[in-house]
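Researcher: Structure prediction, please.
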Amino acid sequence: MPNFIPLKFITFSEEEQLRRAREFNDEYQRRRTVREFSDKPVPRELLEQFLKTAGSAPSGANRQPWRFVVVTDPEMKHRIRVEAEKEERESYEHRMPQEWLDDLAALGTDWHKEFLEIAPALIVVFAVNYDLDGGHIHKNYYVKESVGIATGFLLAAIHHAGLASLTHTPSPMDFLQKILNRPENEKPFLLIPVGYPKEAVTVPDIHRKPLQEIVVWK
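Model: Predicted structure follows.
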């Protein structure tokens, strides 16, 4: 039988709950994806705090099926950019249907990915499909769901500390496994540039769907 310990749980009044919920919502409504970064360095200790938060996410059977590879080396960032742009150019010019291209046009994106070199840190998220315990394959459960939740924690932590991020998904992403020399049981899930926004940066004038479009009450 597993060991159990007392739950450390803080109870708030209803008024305090609502205040905290509103403050949290206000803060994260301001979160925006950034594609133009400053090259100002981000301290390693700060990145470590983000990753500790990500690692606290719930996961299937508590298997914690994630690996975070932090890339700050300029040469390696350059290699990642070169390979990512190869895939992105192919996607923009041949793979993506016109409807997808039309949707992306509103965001002003294309296959050029300068931010992969300019951002001071790239966090590459890998999904770990199974672990090797003494040569024995130990399967992980609900891997994509678990890694997705951990990534959400990571993005929230980055924003909360006053930094910017971008969720980048060049497809296919197999090149990341090769460049970063990751084992077969780890598959690239997401590439997240992290840093400070470039001075006077602008972002697309987009809007979130109102609550009544995303929530159904029963």
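Model: The radius of gyration is 19 Å.
Researcher: Thanks, that helps.
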